[in-house]
Write a structure and sequence with these properties.
Length: 416
């Protein structure tokens, strides 16, 4: 965890990307210089896995050329990037363009680091409102999403077929639980997910929590307790393994990859691994309690413009952001990152090129940002009691009601 008044919130929030499957993998700087132009403009991003030969870096260079400037790009691990962005702002040395994990936008905005899209004259009209909401605080918008990833249910076709389960019939919690029971009866395993006591666990619990109709401002509502009861009942009935308590999304996926499980809750970032699993798979949206697609949390980054002492730089920053977010470039970038685009037009193009993405587009359309509902910097202070609560219930230490009553007391005190 980091220090200072606002960095503690940032440290928890940024773990959402690190632990929820976003694109960060390394922890080293990777500076590169783009076109030979007049002024130099700096871009910081959380993609250290991409070197100068990558399409992403070539796009940055091209956007610099098109804008008549040289782009100097530096890549950081997500946590490091946020800390450096906060420090740079304190020293009045912020980059011109900052690409940052969406839950961190509210923290940076609250700290006065970012300009608004209105100030930067950035057109947000085509951006899906549910995705844009992750960057909105107090009626103002701080940047635009570069794309999004989210969660759905992968399934093993052979396991379901052997159990006599048609995945198309899984429409709500009752039908899902019934399917898990049929699978267990064949000797196979039901569902695996990540319920670890970190932001990663909260990320995976939220579709069930929101899918019950619960709200993060009232963790111990009957709806919230129902979502936790669903998870605890699955463990008690042997429909999910006890290992979920310590599972990351990676270890949960490894369990699914054994071929013994019917379902796994995981994200778009596992598509490549799914193709290598050695068995036929499919994907369905996570169902809400009463039916329909549950709102899953969004992962992915926002393109933002930090405050500069020299406001004369903003005109070129506007050009760089427009270049990075136009339809053709967004398609290339989102394909590279395994993201779903933030606009209907590019989503349509993605599905036309790869029909497998249709279910992910559906999931993203129903998704919501963790800091949405105007929670902003309150979200990390709620998420930690949330994961502490479901860990207590899953381990048998408390009932779902008692676990979330305690969680709500902690969250309420932290967000006063």
């Amino acid at each position: 965890m980091t220090v200072s008044i606002y960095r503690r919130a940032a440290a928890v929030a940024v773990s959402a990307c690190l632990l929820a499957g976003c694109s960060t993998t390394g922890g080293t700087d990777s500076g590169s210089t783009g076109s030979a132009g007049g002024a130099t403009f700096t871009v910081w991003d959380p993609y250290p896995q991409f070197d100068d030969s990558a399409d992403w870096v070539k796009l940055l260079q091209k956007c610099g050329t098109d804008s008549g400037v040289t782009v100097k790009r530096t890549a950081y691990d997500t946590t490091d990037l946020t800390n450096k962005a906060l420090l740079a702002a304190q020293q009045s040395n912020s980059p011109d363009v900052l690409i940052v994990d969406n839950p961190v936008v509210s923290t940076l905005a609250d700290a006065g680091v970012l300009t608004t899209t209105e100030e930067m004259k950035v057109d947000t009209a085509a951006i899906s409102p549910n995705l844009l909401a992750a960057g909105q605080i107090g009626g103002k918008t701080y940047g635009i999403p570069i794309g999004a990833n989210t969660l759905a249910l992968y399934y093993n076709k052979a396991v379901l077929t052997a159990a006599g389960v048609d995945p198309a019939t899984v429409k709500d919690w009752a039908s899902l639980t019934a399917a898990l029971g049929k699978v267990k009866a064949t000797g196979k395993k039901g569902i695996t997910f990540s319920a670890i006591g970190t932001e990663e666990g909260s990320f995976q619990f939220l579709p069930w929590f929101w899918g019950s109709g619960a709200n993060l401002t009232k963790l111990d509502s009957p709806e919230g307790v129902a979502a936790l009861t669903l998870w605890t009942d699955w463990l008690k009935q042997g429909l999910a393994p006890n290992s979920v308590i310590g599972n990351t999304q990676t270890t949960s996926w490894q369990e699914f990859a054994t071929g013994q499980f019917a379902f796994a809750e995981n994200g778009t970032w596992q598509l490549g691994n799914a193709k290598k699993a050695g068995f036929e798979y499919g994907i369905i949206p996570i169902p809400s309690k009463a039916g329909g697609t549950a709102p899953a949390p969004t992962g992915g980054e926002f393109v933002t413009a930090p405050v500069q002492k020299d406001s004369g730089r903003y005109a070129t920053t506007q050009k760089l952001i427009a270049c990075l977010s136009n339809a053709d470039n967004a398609y290339t970038t989102d394909t590279t990152l395994s993201y779903i685009a933030a606009t209907d037009a590019v989503q349509t193009k993605q599905v036309a090129a790869n029909a497998e993405l249709k279910v992910w587009v559906e999931a993203v359309k129903a998704a919501k940002g963790r800091t949405s509902d105007n929670l902003g910097t309150k979200y990390p202070k709620i998420s930690q009691p949330l994961w502490t609560g479901f860990q207590a219930a899953l381990s048998g230490g408390k009932s779902p009601q008692d676990a979330f009553t305690a969680a709500q007391t902690t969250a309420a005190a932290a967000t006063k």
